[in-house]
Amino acid sequence: MELIFEQSVKGRKGVSFPVDNTSEAAPLPKELLREEKAELPELSELDVVRHFTKLSRLNFSVDTNFYPLGSCTMKYNAKGFEEAAKLFAPFHPMLSMLPEGEKLSQGSLELIFETEKLLAEITGMDAVTLQPMAGAHGEMTGCMLIAAYHKAKENKKKYVIVPDSSHGTNPASAAMVGYEIITIPTAAYGDMDLDAFKATLNNEVAAIMMTCPNTLGLFNPYVKEICDLAHSVDALVYYDGANLNAIMGKVRPGDIGFDVIHLNLHKTFGTPHGSGGPGSGPVGVKESLVKFFPSPRVKKNGDSSFSIAKEDKSSIGSVSNFFGNFGVIVKAYAYILQLGREGLIEASEQAVLNANYIMSRLKEYYDLPYNQICMHECVFSASRQMESGIHAIDIAKYLIDRKIHPPTVYFPLIVKEAIMIEPTETESKETMDNFIEIMIEAAKLAESDPDILRQAPLKTPVSRLDETKAAREQNVCCVL
Amino acid sequence: MERYFTKEHEWISVNGTTATVGITSHAAEELGDITFVELPQVGKSVKRSETLAAIESVKAASDVYAPISGRVTSTNETLETMPEVVNESPEESGWICTLEVENPEELKGLMNAEEYKAFI
Predict the structure, then answer these.
(1) Is there a contact between A459 and A385 (Cβ–Cβ < 8 Å)?
(2) Each residue's pLDDT tens digit, A279-334
(3) Does the residue A60 lie in any domain?
(4) Do A173 and A143 form a contact (C-beta atoms < 8 A)?
(5) What is the CATH number of the domain that holds A207?
(6) Average pLDDT over residues A387-400
(7) Are B59 and A410 an interchain contact pair (Cβ–Cβ within 8 Å)?
(8) Do A366 and A389 have their domain in common?
(9) Can you give the pLDDT at residue A470?
(10) What is the pLDDT of residues A426-474, one digit of tens each?
C-alpha cells in the first residue's frame, strides 16, 4: 500500500478556494515564515477518503478478529453501551461545579454514586472512588492511600512486597510513591513462594501487592494466609484487579482480607480499550482508609438529592477530576445493570471455561510450564518449538497472517518464550476451535517447515519490522 | 583477575579493590536485542542485591543487581549511545560499571565460571 505522500500528484487539490478579491494583506514578519516549502501531499478529497478507509480496514480489533491478548481481557464491547454513554452527553457532571449546577446534573451524580456502590458490592470493599483514569493510575492512587494510612498512624514503613508473578506496573507504582520494592519469586505451584514471603515480611513492610489470579492465570491458594500474615505486622494488602474477570461475582477480595483494590473497568466491565477508548481504574478500600480518599466526592443527602462533598482534611487530594472518565463509567454501569448479579457470575465462569478449553486442547502441542487448571488465561511456552529455532514471536507473527490477533508474548517474564492466551467469555466455541486448529498448524510447521513461520507475516502491507532499530533510534518526528 | 557470577546472571571481575560488573552472555542472549542501558550514578553506594542498573530489550526490561556492596567508581558511557555493545560483547566491552569493593568476604557467596555453567 502506498503512503499518502507517494500518492501525491503535483497541482492536485482537495478543495477550491474562492478567488481572493481582498486587498493585499501585510506580509508576515520574516521570522515567522518557514524556510523550506511544507511539501504536503497533493490529493483530491476522494483520494484522501479512499486512503484512510483502506487504512482503517487494515486495523485489527475485537470488532474484526479474535483477540486473545493475555492479561488484557479483550472482550466484546457491546454497542448498546455506547448509546447509553451518548444519552449523558448533554448532562456533563462538570455542570455541578457551577453555582446551582448540582440541580442540573443530579442524574450524572447519581450514576457516579451508584456505580461506586455497585463496585464496592462486587468487590466486598467499603467504598470506591472513580477518579483514577486507568489501571496504573489506580495503582498509584492505592499506594498513595497506603502511604497516607501509615503516615497517619506514624508507622515507620519502607518496603512494598511484590511477587514476580504480579503485573509489571505494581513495583513501578509503589516506587513512584517512594517505597522500596522487594520481589518474591514464584514457587513450583505457580504462585508467590509462601516460605520466601514469610521470611521477608517484617515491621517495615507497608504493603504487599498481589495480582490475583496472577499473571500465570493461577489463583493463589494461600491468599487468606498471606492477608492475615501481612495484617499481623500492620502491612496492608493490595489487590490488582486487572484479572478480576476470572472471579467476578464468585469471590470478593474484600472478604478474603484485601484492604485496597483497583479495577480496570475497560477490561472486566466491557468498555473499549487498546486504542479503542480511554480506561478507568477505580479504587476500592476498607473503612479505615476511606478518609484518605481523593476529593471531592459525590454524596447522597438526606432528601435523596446528590451533591459534591467538600474536601476531607485527611484526603490525599485530587488525582483527577471527581467524575474520572465519566463516559467509561456510564458504559460500565450499563454493563453491570445489563448482566446483573447472575450474569456477572456467568461471565466469569465462561471466561474460565474458555481458557481451560484452549489450554487442554493445546497442551499436547505446546509446553505448559505450570500444568494445572487455570483461571481466565493460560500461559504456554514455545520452548519445544525453540528446538527447531522457532520462537514465540514467530508463532505470533504467523497468527497475524491467519487473521488472529497474537496472544501476549514474552510476558510474564518468569516463563521462557511465554505465549499468554486469554480468550474471554464473549468468544464462541467455533472461534476458539479455529484458533486452536491454527495454533496446532503452527506447532506442526515449526517442525516441518519453520521458514514459513520465520518469514511471517506475508499477507500484511509490511512484514517483519525492525523492532530493535525502532527502539534504538526513536526518531518519531515527521519533518515536512 | 578473578571472575565470579551471580544467580541473577551478572558477572564481576575483581582486581584488588576494584571490581568490574556486567551481565553474562547467557543473560544477553535471553534478553534479545538490547535497546537501552540505564547506568548507575558515579559515586552511588549500593548494597549487595540492590538494583545497580536497568536494561531494556525488545522483549523485556530488567534490573541489574549489585553482586557485592560497594561504591560506583565509573560507568561504561559507550552504552548510553550504543547499547548493542552489551549484545556484541557482554563479558568484555559491554561491561556496565566498576565498583570499589567494600567487603571482599561477599565474593565468597558467588559462583565461579564452572559453577555458573552448571547453574544455567
Answers:
(1) no
(2) 999 999 999 999 999 999 999 999 999 999 877 789 999 999 999 999 999 999 99
(3) no
(4) yes
(5) 3.40.640.10
(6) 96
(7) yes
(8) yes
(9) 85
(10) 999 999 999 999 999 999 999 999 999 999 999 998 899 888 888 888 7
Provide the pLDDT for residue A310.
77
Chain A's closest residue to B33, CA to CA, is A468
Find the CATH number of the domain harbouring A417: 3.90.1150.10
Q: What's the pTM value of the predicted model, to 2 decimals?
A: 0.88
Q: Which of A383, A391, A464, A472 to mutate to test the interface with B (most CBs of B within 10 A)?
A: A472
Quick one: average pLDDT of A175-188?
95
- Residues A185 and A251 reside in one and the same domain: yes
Closest alpha carbon to A370 in A189, A231, A168, A248: A189
For residues A368 and A275, state if they share a domain. no
Q: Could you say which of A310, A338, A366 is where a domain stops?
A: A338
ipTM of the complex: 0.74
Confirm if A253 and A123 have CB atoms less than 8 A apart: yes
**Hey, what's the cell of B9?**
546472571
> In whole angstroms, what is the distance from residue B20 CA to residue B35 CA?
22
| B61-65, strands of its sheet edge to edge | B34-38, B51-57, B61-65
Do strands A159-163 and A180-184 pair parallel, antiparallel, or not at all (unpaired)?
parallel
| Chain A residues within 8 A of B61 when measuring between CB atoms | 168
State the DSSP string of A56-120: HHT---TTTS---BTTS------HHHHHHHHHTTTS-GGGGGSTTGGGGGHHHHHHHHHHHHHHH
Is pLDDT at A46 greater than 70 in this prediction?
A: yes
Neighboring chain A residues of B33 at a CB cutoff of 8 Å: 467-468, 471
Contacts of A467 in chain B (CB under 8 A): 33, 58
Torsion of CA B40, B41, B44, B47, to 10 degrees: -10
- Number of domains, chain A: 2
pLDDT at position A276, please? 61
Chain B closest-CA separation from residue A468 CA (Å): 6
Q: Specify the pLDDT at position A472.
A: 81
Helix A106-123 with A326-362: angle, nearest 10 deg: 30
pLDDT > 90 fraction of chain A, expressed in percent and rounded: 82
Report the DSSP pairing between strands B34-38 and B61-65: unpaired
Asked whether residue A287 falls in the same domain as residue A418, the answer is no
Question: CA of B81: which chain A residue's CA is closest?
Answer: A472
**Domains within chain B, CATH numbers bracketed:** 2-112 (2.40.50.100)
Rounded to 10°, the helix A429-448/A392-401 angle is 120
**Which pLDDT value is given to residue A479?**
64
Distance from C-alpha of A207 to C-alpha of A243, rounded to nearest angstrom: 19
Question: Minimal Cα–Cα distance from B1 to chain A, Å?
Answer: 32
